[in-house]
Amino acid sequence: MRVLWIGFGQAGGKIANSLMGMNRRLYSAIAINTEEADLSGLGNIRQKVLIGKYALRGRGVGSDIDLGASIAEKSLAQMMDTIDVVVRKQDPEVIWIAAGLGGGSGAGGSFVLANELKKVYKHIPVYGIGVVPSVSGMPQDKEALNLSNTVKSFELWSHYFNNILLVDNQQYERPHVTRESVEMMFQRVNEHLAQTLTTIISAGEIRPPPQEVFSSSEIKATMGLIGDISTIGYCAEEIKIKSQFWRNGMDPGTHELESIIERSVEKSSLTFPADVTGARSASLIVHGRPEHLFAQSISTGKAKLEELTTVGKVRYGDYPDRRTKYLSAITIISGITDFSRLDQMKKRVQELSGSMSTSHHSNSDNVVDPSIIQNLTTRDSVSRPIV
Question: In tens digits, what is the pLDDT along the chain, a chain of 387 residues?
Fold first, then answer.
């Protein structure tokens, strides 16, 4: 599947940069930001767009969603000119915008851009990756701002994307690891996400082809076009390799593979923790050495996923890889209905707002200007040929 990644804001830019480091054959990428310094460190991305240069002097929007959306609205022609060039050259099958939900540039600008992309490229699905921030150790005022932004931007995003994949950074925290900096944690999370997505996207492209090909049409069918919210589950076990007998690992058998598939949808294994019951669609990809991809185990694991998610039929593909040291299962669950994590965030914002003596730190009034939303729904898109 050919994908155009658009990294919007600091978090989104880093995700797109990690993805470009995984597969330059299938991927193309553009980084967009209001902060000039954040663009300079993205070594894997050539196409970079600094918006709001004269209004902000390249210094960002300061976690202000309203300002981020306003700058994006005024910079649509600038962004679309760059995107047009890439779309014409690469002919992507999907466009995926990644951004942090707790910031300003990406959270506020992404839904504005998504709305325009859907108008101009009607045949290309526009998906989002929304990163839920980790607020551990933050001062109360900054925690309140990040959480408030996340709740509000999520509600805005849900109206403008064909699908939103949520990634909760809190899922990847390692409290027992004391020597990992915040920057190192973000890099680890981004690389894991990039590797997982690349396995999904490239599963149908490998040669020789697998037994069950997981094509780009399967990904689109799973993600849908109706504004679903999705999460991705991942579970892997290191295997014993005869040539490296001194290393630890498991001897993969049928029960082990079944267990890995089932554990891939546990809350702790998901990019966004949720009860997967009642999802609209789901897909499974099993990645491992060919001799460990047991047909009966996969069939049993699939049946278990169908039972756990209540999805009628789980789509499936295998990814045989003779070089891997792991046996893993990746499950895409789309159309989730459990947003208890966001409800917890709303309650926490209320607690913090009540406990702080000054209300301006909580960002409780940081609601996107209604005129921007009105413009998105009523104005004509910029006249550009559809490729």
Answer: 999 999 999 999 999 999 999 998 899 999 999 999 999 999 999 999 999 988 787 677 888 999 999 999 999 999 999 999 999 999 999 999 999 999 889 999 999 999 999 999 999 999 999 999 988 888 888 989 999 999 999 999 999 999 999 999 999 887 666 677 878 888 999 999 999 999 999 988 887 778 888 999 999 999 988 889 999 999 999 987 666 555 566 667 678 999 999 999 999 999 999 999 999 999 999 999 998 999 999 999 999 999 999 999 999 999 999 889 999 999 999 999 999 999 999 999 998 887 764 444 444 444 566 666 666 655 444 333 333
CB 339: neighbour CB atoms within 10 A? 15
Residues 349, 346: Cα–Cα separation, whole Å: 5
pTM, two decimals, is: 0.89
**Which stretches does DSSP call E strand in the chain?**
3-8, 27-33, 47-50, 94-100, 126-132, 163-168, 228-238, 281-288, 315-320, 326-334
Comparing 3-204+357-378 with 230-334, is the CATH topology the same? Answer: no
Domain coordinates of the chain in residue numbers? 3-204+357-378, 230-334
| 33 phi, psi to nearest 5 deg | -160, 160
Q: How many whole angstroms separate alpha carbon 173 and alpha carbon 387?
A: 42
Architecture of domain 230-334: 2-Layer Sandwich (3.30)
Contact status, residue 230 vs residue 164, Cβ threshold 8 Å = yes
Share of the chain residues as helix, strand and coil, in percent rounded to the nearest 5? 45, 20, 35
- Could you tell me which residues come within 8 angstroms of residue 54 by beta carbon, excluding any fewer than 6 positions away? none
Report the relative pairing of strands 315-320 and 281-288 from DSSP bridges. Answer: parallel
What type of residue is 332? I
Architecture of domain 3-204+357-378: 3-Layer(aba) Sandwich (3.40)
